[in-house]
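Forgive a beginner's question, but would it be possible to get any protein sequence you like and the tokens describing how it folds?
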Amino acid sequence: MAGSGKVRVAVLISGRGSNMVALAEAARDPAYPAEIVLVLANDPQAEGLARADAMGVATRAIDHRAFPDRATFDAAIDAALREAQVDLVVLAGFMRILTPGFVEGWAGRMINIHPSLLPLFKGTHTHAQALAAGVRLHGCTVHFVVPELDAGPIVAQAAVPVHEGDDPDSLAARVIVQERRLYPAALALIAGGQARLEGDRVVIDRVPADGALFSL
């Protein structure tokens, strides 16, 4: 947290970076407790890199295809994060499975957003999974990252209704609106010290007045 006193955040992306943009926009507020110091992509053609650059955020591409295995790619990511003096890593549509060694190295300092109400519907195609299960509520979850995929202590969740006639695209559109609201709010709680890990649970000292971190 050199310089400004704000938590230094790197956002890892693979594509458009829609959640990254929401985070960067929130971080423009002088009162926001985190600053986005790096947007890093595993694909040099990721659209989010240009979007971050246009917002004045430092960017870097580390092409996973240039490395012989996941461990050496993760080592390059780790080195870039440490070079940028990053305090907290935020995964926002980062489509690479990280090695346990990398995850453990950033334990308690890395979060992810998943498009379901975990522990339901881990993995991919979460909206199709939700429709197939016939649930009436779906949503998104911000959680700390652990070696197990789509697990880890839950920070915050936002719920949306499932409508009759929904298909995966219409349901996804409803969820992404809440992702863009939830992720900046959850990051602010963590960076501001109001949400913290205690063992395998997250304790939150202050719940926003509109309850947005838990249900909509």
In short: Strands lie at 7-13, 34-41, 59-61, 88-91, 110-114, 137-144, 154-161, 195-198, 201-204. The chain has a mean pLDDT of 94.
